[in-house]
Amino acid sequence: MIVSGTTAQALVPTADPSWLLRETGYELLRESTFETRFAISNGFLGVRGGLATHLGACRAIPPRTYVAGLFDTPTPDSAVPELVPAADWLQVRILLPDGPLMRCPNRSSRALTLDMRRGTLFTEARQTCNAPLDVRLRTLRLVSLDLRAIGMQLIELEIENGVSDLTLEASFGPTDFELAPERADLDLKAWRTWRSGRSLAIAAAASLQVDGTERQPTARGDLSWSWSWTASPGQVVSFQRIIAVTRHHSVDVHSGARARKELAAARTLGWQGLIARHEAAWAGRWHCSDVRVEGDPAAQAALRFAIFHLNGAVNPSDPQVSVAARALTGDDYRGHVFWDTEIFLLPFYTLTWPEAARTLLMYRFRTLDAARAKAAAMGWRGALYAWESADIGDEVTPKQTVGPDRKILDILCGSQEQHISADVAYAVWQYWRATEDETFLREAGAEIILETARFWAARAEPEADGLRHIRGIIGPDEYHEAVDDNAFTNMMARWNIERGLDVAALLQELWPETWDGLSERLGLDEPELIQWREAAQTIVTGFDPATGLFEQFAGFSALEEIDLAAYSGRSVPMDVVLGRERTQLTQVIKQADVVALLALLPEVFAGRAAETNFDHYEPRCGHGSSLSRAMHGIAAARLGRSETALQYFRQSAAIDLADTHVAISGGIHIAALGGVWLIAIFGIAGLSLRPDGLAFDPQLPEAWRSLEFRLHWRGRHLIVTIDPAARVFRVALETGSGMPVYVRGSRYLVSADEALAVPLDP
Predict the structure, then answer these.
(1) Residue 698: half-sphere exposure toward Cβ, Cα within 13 Å
(2) What is the set of domains in the chain, with CATH numbers?
(3) What is the pLDDT of residues 333-345, one digit of tens each?
(4) I want to staple 471 with a disulfide (CB 3.0 to 4.6 A). Which of 371, 484, 634, 697 is the partner?
């Protein structure tokens, strides 16, 4: 039995509006946008934000549930795995004798409220027109951040007027992705994927109370219940359902046992206990990651929305999976993992939730053999990570797609967009610098960096000019394919090789036994390290000392210049406006490329080179990717252009929070949300990581009266406050020993006994 109790208090969102996202009314054309924006997730389960089926005059499409790591190929001849939607566990029908109860709800009364503080979705609707009963309907939905296998649904129906027989039916809808049924009991169903050998099991319990008295079902079936009674004015009906979902990476005839065990633990807590523990888990996450902005409510809302989805996207207990491009909120990109995770998400996790960051990097370590296999298949040594990865790390980028003109287009990213290996190494190194997690470095991180460095030393081939070139590549700017010496790729490759040498030296100095074992297993000797040094010194960078510019790739400067300002009113990307073939012959850039180097490797831009390159490439970028504006925002802030940075901040946030991007129907842009945090912390607050501590060069926009945020650094928890009005920069240690902090180039020490306050010049 689910522990009983009143649902009224639970169905009331947080009072503080700064924690709420709310939409009222119903518009069919915007429904898929709402489903994305109001999605909830815990890193294992993700549920889109649509209303439960048949609860209102919405389209009868169930809110999809996704289970992390549940991949299969849709047909026997398909080579591309997809994330498999699970069955609709929220399905409810409330019936009068002559049809559905909510056949004529007041559309203006329909409301969706996402309580980001509590990690809970609320819905509300009323029916008051031409029906036997006037009713008020309220629902609550959550996937537990404390017990990640658990989902919960509460429904409260208040009868305001009328008398009628009423029936409530709760069931599980079918999944639209074919799964093979394995088992069907009253409390459990189990399925398996046809081709990937994965098992899914869902156990469930449900109960219904009328005026606080529990009613026994009048009918039962496999994960289905039905109750019938006579409704009358003043009656309050409460329905509760708890589910437990388990995923297994092999077909298991006992796959339901764990689901039943998880459900039993949840039922012992009861729905009130589940809510309490879920909210406590969210309170813990917000304590470590909240960012507070005074003076700019829109920026505050954007940061809360971004951090909410970032915290809900990862499961620190599951190294079998990573965060997909749309997290667990939609179908776009088939649930595949890109460089987005390492470059746009890992900084947030590393500095606010290192356990989650470590887990995501362990996914890359677990898939290292697949990266080695890809490199070997293409004729190189080392590890080349998949551009698109699913659960086992194989390259799963589709070979073709249909273009805007309905023509079949070849997709070359899977073979040519190779900077992913340097991106993974970058995330590993940043994690190591921020945490000094020796166990991770010795057991996983060092091998990733060494094997990716080995790849680049092989990939950058020496030529007659005495330099090493990387030819036939795609950089972040995917408008230009098969280019030579892309500046971003080459510079990141050089950086990766240099970090490989650093890791080798570090292991030799501090952990010689680890080095001996690892170097022997990898066949890595001193002559190869000497080759790496030569490679790092001779890779072409594209830098022109005369102009101070890094040429984006060889020949880029000779391409046709396009005035993007003349196309400022466009509603589609520039490659659609100009056509794919012409775009490749122009200097139109899809997304930050050299500008991304400004954000990731600012140290390579000496003197005025940073300003020169930003000013050259910014007007050439069409921002055809949701990732682009984050890099521009960071770079602009570091140049002291805080208002420009704020503009990019708002544009990044608008991708998911405004109704200007139809692509949101396929899921949230989790990397753009990571970019919102990056612009605020690495850009506007001016954070950078030093070998001995953290450095800040704050550049707050005029509207921001103050900025406060929390960071985790080598076992310490810090609270950072930037207060331009008081002209002070403060750092307080919540936990941990004293450490150096750099503010605008000056070194200070913050102690556990007393907060640091540094005067700020205007």
Answers:
(1) 27
(2) 18-288 (2.70.98.40)
(3) 999 999 999 999 9
(4) 484
